[in-house]
Each structure stands twice: as C-alpha cells, then as structure tokens.
Amino acid sequence: MSLFEIENLVVEFQTAAGPFRAVDGVSMKVNAGEVLAIVGESGSGKSVSMLAAMGLLPWTAKVTADKLQFNGIDLLGLSPSDRRKIVGKDIAMIFQEPVASLNPCFTVGFQIEEVLRIHLGLDKKARRARSSCLTLSAFPIPPSG
Question: In the chain, N or C: fewer CB atoms in 10 Å?
Fold first, then answer.
C-alpha cells in the first residue's frame, strides 16, 4: 500500500466565464521512504494539486478525485478538524518563497513551537527544548496511529 496516493485529481474554480479547470487528471503514488519532487512551468498546477490534497484551497475550489489517500485514510472524506490533525504534522508543503512559509512578524522559534504544541501536545518547556536544537534531520515525528 502506498503512503500517499492520488488518482485522477481534478480541481476547478468558478469564474465569470464558467468553470476553470486548474488541475486535470493528476495521479501519483508515493511509498514510505520515497521522496517526490513536483516540477513544471509556472501555472501548471503544482501548488494547486498539493494544496487540494491538504484541503487548503478556498471554498470556491471544487476538488474531486477517484482516490486521495494518505496512510490508508481517505482525505476527501475527512472533516476539516480531522484533516487539520494530519496536515502540518504528517503532510506538509515546502513553498519556494520563504515569505509564504514563515510569518516575518513572529520568530522562527515561536512558529516551530506552535507546530509542536498543536500537533504533539508538548508543554512549553518541551517545546523550547525541541525547537532550540531542531535540525531537519534530527527531529523524529512519531507515526500516526
């Protein structure tokens, strides 16, 4: 079973001229331990596809797929609160522009601590300890379950 699987993802936005199909029939499978890089021209639907998978598109987007699963969980069938438990903890997106990733009004440490509080339920002391020595390769995230 794939860790992350999409079959026939379609994303449409309503416009004054009618529906605009931003993503048309995207499919992919990613197994545990694999890395997926999505590349393409500007406007080709890379970000919209992944934002759709995470449920982060505005309400004006119509998202359909034959299959949209993470770790055996149907992402399209999740409630917004259940999806928030996964997005940011188990599924995340690294944006090309740093301004889109971090809020310059808050310290990096504060923003990392916020993720640890929300997704791992760590108290302030544990969050500070983790965020002060955080490196990308040394921060294990326990599996969902």
Answer: C
The answer to whether residue 86 is domain-embedded is yes
Same domain, 40 and 71: yes
Angle between helices 108-120 and 124-132 in degrees, nearest 10? 130
Integer CA distances (angstroms), 138 to 4, 6, 36, 135, in order: 23, 29, 20, 5
**DSSP designation for 88:** T
User: 47-95 pLDDT, tens per residue?
Assistant: 899 999 999 899 999 999 999 999 999 999 998 888 888 887 788 777 7
